[in-house]
Amino acid sequence: MARIRYYYDTETCKFEPVKTSTTDIVLNLVGFLVFSLIISIGLVSLYVNYFPSEQAADLAKENQQLLLKYKVLNNEFASASRMLSALQDRDDNVYRVVFEAEPIPMEVRNAGTGGAEKYRDLLDERLKREDVIIGAFQRLDKLKKQMYIQTKSYDELFEKAKEKAKMLASIPAIQPISNENLTQFASGFGMRMHPIYKVMKMHTGCDFSAPNGSPVYATGDGVVISSEAMSGYGNQVEIDHGYGYITKYAHLSAFSVRKGQRVKRGQKIGAVGSTGVSVSPHLHYEIIHNGNKIDPVNFFFNDLSPAQYEKLLEIARQERQSMGGE
Ligand SMILES: [Zn+2]
Asked: What is the Å distance from ligand 1's center to 149 Cα?
């Protein structure tokens, strides 16, 4: 039963019943609905913003943990980077110096690893702290590139070390006959009186006097390129050591090697004699470097103490006549 409402009419001075039109009712209803809707939207957005769903809360927690992991990862990369830096430093200042390799320029070591843009696509723009994640990927990239260059450097040094060892074994470095007391060094390199022609002549090697048949040794690793009788040098052996070095051993009484044979430093290649132009049993020894005959006295460093070497240099400087030759 609808309640009848009254109002006081000042003209009639009576209470008159309120007449409600249909339009009023509809307008009231619409107003109420609009008001309710606004309140509802407000409440829902309040709820969504301040009371996230359980799933959203889990995701946020997971995000936090991921962020933490990336931060830890970044620290790990920084520590690996420091270790690599120490290796690079040692490489440039020790290993590459020892093996006479140029240091690797910093710009090569730090060569382009691409900017942050490379990884921008990986990430959702809404993700917070994307810099941490991009940073981790960039650090990893840089580290990989630097490690690759470091590995290449070690490969190069390994090759150089092998080459250096081979070179050290090949280049003439000992005396060709046993000469511990340095009493057998007879005549040095330079202008010397020739014992047979009786004229000053260029002596292109050095002479060691020794009894007939004394062993003659290869002064470095190499390949025998000559083992034959010549007119002036008599029976001679020539060894090619590579790196531009050839040694010649002349006036031999016997051969212990043949042409084409590989020899090691210290290996017996023949015996002292007096074949060819020679006054008495001796070994005439020559070193030819890039086609030039050079003073062998500078190549006896392996088996001499500094004092012995000094003494040998003194003997070599004395202008004793040679013991023969061409
Ligand atoms: Zn000689």
From this structure: 53
